[in-house]
Structure formats: C-alpha cells, structure tokens
Amino acid sequence: MNESLLLRCAGRPVGRYLFRPELEARLSPRPYLHPLTTLGGVRVTEEMPGDHLHHLGAGVAVPDVAGRNFWGGRTYVRGQGSTELDNHGVQRHTGWKLRDPDGFVEELAWTAGPGELLREHRTVSATELSPGAWALDFTFSLTNTTGEDLSIGSPATNGRPGAGYGGFFWRAPKEAGRPAVFTADADGEDAVHGHTAPWVALAGDGWTLVFAGANEETRRDPWFVRTEEYPGVGSSLAWDERVPVAAGRTLVRRILTVVADGRLERDAAAALVRKAVSA
Q1: What is the pLDDT of residues 61-115, one digit of tens each?
Q2: In degrees rounded to 5, what are phi and psi of residue 272?
Q3: Amino acid 187: pLDDT
C-alpha cells in the first residue's frame, strides 16, 4: 500500500508526497511528489506516463551511482546502447526529522544489492509568493556511506552525448502543444538544454514552472530540458563528466521551483524567482 502525505501551501493543498510508493523494481522505487498543482488547481506533474514509465512526478533520480540505476528503466552501456540490466536501486524512506503541513525533513537510504551506497537528508517546503504562485524549495544532501570512493554518472558520461540527466527532475504533463521553454536570454530547447542559467522556465497550458539553483554548486549544473519528446526539466549532476563522491563526503543540491498559474512572460518569471530566493 502506498504511503503518502499531503503538502499544503498557505493552508491549501498543492501536492502529495509518496514516501513509500509501491513500484516495480525496474522503476527504481523512490519517494516523489505527485500530483503537484498550482494554487488554482492546475496539475503540473505527470506520473508513470506511457512514454517513460519511470518518470515519477518531481523528485531525485540518478541513472548511475557506482554502476547502479536509481533512475529506472534501461541503462545506457557504452558500446551497447540502452540495455535492460538487473541493476536497479531503491531510495528507501527511513524516517522523519520534521513533518509539518507545509514541508518536511526526511532521511533516506539509497540501497542496491546487499548494501547502502548513499544516505540522503532531504528538505522540502512550500511557500506562497502571490495569490497565483508558490515556491517548492527542495534540498537533497547525499553522503557516501560505503567506506570507499564512488562516483555518479549519466548516459552522457557512458557515451550518449547530450543525455547528461540525473539529479532533481520534474516531469510535466504532456499536452496537445509543446510547452515553451526559456531563460533570461535564450528561447527553445536547443538554446537552453545543456547550458547553465540562473533560472529556466517551462510554460504550458495555464501554468508556468520556473526552476532556479539556490546554492552555488547547483547553479554550476547545466539544465536538462525536454519539450519535443516530452515535457521535463532537470538539474544535471553529471552532464559530461562523472562526479566523484569520496568516502564519507557529502554532495548538496538545492532547487527552487516557482509554480504559477497562467503563462508567464520573461519579466514576470524573473520577478517571481527573485521573490522566491529572498523568501
């Protein structure tokens, strides 16, 4: 049975967090947020869509942690391409440090095979920005608990150019038309995908999401963006090089996501990001 909690913002429900979902092993079971909505009630996440069953709302997914798949689906193997492997890991909820209506602090264990690879400290909160917008503040800290050095990779680091996904990822709903994607000075998937920017906006039918790195390490990560094949945005941990995590060391990333009713223009998106960062 799925176990979940309701996330509220200014007293209104804006999402559900499944912290013990029932999922097949090949989907790399993990906690995730779905559905998330605007304050006006428009749904802005997708769960297990037909094009990618392992896309689970908004959360953290990594395709290669020391060769283990915490993303779900097939694994990209150099010289072979996407390959079905029995290498899927699990992000397991182990307890709460804090649990309030508008957020929580959670502990998780990233396990694969017989042991734990990473221990995660996750903080999530919801803050109202205006009558038509709220912000999701999502921080994850990954500590290597193996006693040995390990590294994080992606399909790109394993030989598939441009596929440097892995980290915080938000799967948006597929609509009749493609969503617009833009930054402060660029428009379109080709111009935004694989580049760094203070923020990136994804705007669909009656909704806009604006993603911003909220610490220095996150701001250095390129954005992974899809609008043509499917709508989704992620902050990439290992865009073109593996990221080492030494024994006992911790990697920290923090993403702020503005969730707004309506289709925002560039200036309005930038103003809401500034407000979210200062909130």
Answers
A1: 999 999 999 999 999 999 999 999 999 999 999 999 999 999 999 999 999 988 9
A2: -70, -35
A3: 98
Which residue type is seen at 131? Answer: P
Query: Cis before residue 21, ω within 30 degrees of 0?
Result: no
> How far is Cα 238 from Cα 63, in angstroms, rounded to an integer?
10
Q: What is the DSSP letter of 56?
A: B
Taking alpha carbons only, the member of 120, 89, 125 closest to residue 106 is 120
Strands 223-226 and 207-213: unpaired
Which tokens is 152 given?
A: 């994080």
Determine the Cα–Cα distance for residues 59 and 34; give it in Å rounded to an integer. 9
Question: Where would I find the H helices in the chain?
Answer: 189-192, 216-219, 266-278
Per-residue DSSP letter, 40? T
| Complete DSSP assignment for 125-165 | EEEEEETTEEEEEEEEEEEE-SSS-EEEE-TTTTT-TT---
CA distances from 226 to 28, 172, 277 (A): 21, 10, 25
208, with CB counted inside 10 A (0-12, 13-18, 19+), is: buried
Work out the burial of residue 205: count CB atoms within 10 Å of its CB; fewer than 13 is exposed, 13-18 middle, 19 or more buried: exposed
- Predicted pLDDT at 96: 98
